[in-house]
Amino acid sequence: MAPGEVVRAAAAAGLDVVGLTDHDTAAGWAAAEAAALETGISLVRGLEISTRFGGRGVHLLGYLVDPTYPPLVEALGKILDGRSSRVPAILERLRGLGIDIDIADVRRVAPHARATGRPHIADALVEAGVVPDRAAAFRELLNPGRPAYVQRYAADLEDMIGLVTAAGGVAVIAHPWGRQDPSVLGEEGLARLRQVGLAGVEVDHQDHSPADRERLRAIARELELVATGSSDFHGTGKVNHELGCHTTEVEEFERLIALADAAAAASGRVTPHVVVE
């Protein structure tokens, strides 16, 4: 879905605030802002940045950053270059497995994507009839250890938290326990990241069990981190993540915005505000 379509769908789902955090790019912000003003929904602009910490991939949410901050622009450029080079490498591996899809097939299923990646390749595999759905594509071919997996560049997490803060934004770890061993981002790891500027942790997420959510919420309270929630909606290709299935509590949202205001003032940069009609 295009950014404006996502915002309109969020408004139609009854949400009063939505965050747009495309992977490693702010390219959709203008269209999302226009749709927010059109529908009356409040919009928080951000990024979901690909990083590494403790030998594993971690997604970092950078909310309300100045997207023109030169060090951030440079870092995101390197990450996007890594994405761009990864796609043809994966397609080459698929061809070696006798699966003949090309970049045109990927672009056809992701016409609005600024940052193409494994989910779009998965959708192309579904369209070609190779697998029944995106989950099967990852499970059988695209996950680490599977025959078409290719590693790519990701920024250092601690460095990126510093860049998000310097750009006047707030840094929140996305779905920390959702897909891998949670030990790297347990209380000790999150405390270390808190010391370098981490502002929050995504607690309420479909990939976290109810027990994990409560444990994460307790850690967030102990470390005085903002506890956010999100549907992590990625369009129709990602099932069981419908808009509004998880949300952020009003008090936590207000804490997040207060931290963003403070970060913006400390940075001296012109940062985006929440779009409100």
Describe what you observe in this structure.
- The structure is a single chain.
- The chain has helices spanning 3-12, 29-39, 70-96, 103-109, 118-127, 134-142, 157-166, 187-195, 210-223, 250-267; strands at 17-23, 42-53, 56-63, 155-156, 170-173, 200-204, 226-229.
- The chain starts with a helix and ends in a 10-residue tail after the last helix.
- It is of the alpha/beta class and 277 residues long.
- Strands 1, 2, 3, 4, 5, 6 and 7 form a seven-stranded mixed β-sheet that branches.
- Helix 1 packs parallel to helix 2, helix 4 packs across helix 5 and helix 5 (118-127) crosses helix 6 (134-142).
- The longest helix has 27 residues, at 70-96.
- The chain is globular.
Regions with little confidence, pLDDT below 50 for 5+ residues: none
Instruction: Count the E strands.
Output: 7
Q: What percentage of amino acids are in beta strands?
A: 15-25%
Chain-averaged pLDDT:
94
Element order: H for helix, E for strand: HEHEEHHHHEHEHEHEH
Provide a count of the helices: 10
Q: Which structural class should the secondary elements be placed in?
A: alpha/beta
| N-to-C span | 23 Å
Main beta sheet, described?
7 strands, mixed
What percent of the residues sit in helical stretches (DSSP H or I)?
Answer: 40-55%
**Coarse shape:** globular
Radius of gyration: 18 Å
